[in-house]
């Protein structure tokens, strides 16, 4: 078992070393003043888009569990 574990570790390290340069390619940077938008505005992705959806989903889950718990307690009484 120890022999196979060493072979797997060496293979993973080898694959990471081979793939590392390919994974490190990034997109070129924008203009230094940040005015690359269509009307000279900022370019970039909105930060709040996904976070607000996660918060709304979490609130909906809590409300659902609260009402389901309340309904189950009323049935047993």
Describe the structure.
66% of the residues lie in helices and 0% in strands. It has 77 residues and is mainly alpha-helical. It has a domain at 49-77. The N and C termini lie far apart (58 Å).
What is shown here, in short?
The chain has 2 helices and no strands. The chain is mainly alpha-helical and 77 residues long.
The outline comes out as: flat
Radius of gyration: 26 Å
By secondary-structure content and strand pairing, the structural class works out as mainly alpha
H/E topology pattern: HH
Low-confidence stretches: none
From the N-terminal CA to the C-terminal CA, the straight-line distance is 58 Å
Q: Average pLDDT across residues?
A: 76
- The fraction of residues in strands falls at under 5%
Share of helical residues: 55-70%
**How many beta-strand runs?**
0
Helix count from the secondary structure assignment: 2
Largest sheet, in brief, is: none
Give descriptors for this structure.
77 residues, mainly alpha, 0% strand
Blueprint (SSEs and pairs):
Layout: H1 2-23, H2 48-76
């Amino acid at each position: 078992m120890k022999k196979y574990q060493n072979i797997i570790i060496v293979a993973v390290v080898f694959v990471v070393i081979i793939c590392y340069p390919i994974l490190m390619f990034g997109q070129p940077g924008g203009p230094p003043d940040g005015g690359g938008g269509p009307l000279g505005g900022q370019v970039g992705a909105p930060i709040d888009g996904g976070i607000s959806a996660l918060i709304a989903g979490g609130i909906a889950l809590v409300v659902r569990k609260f009402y389901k718990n309340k309904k189950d307690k009323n049935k047993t009484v």
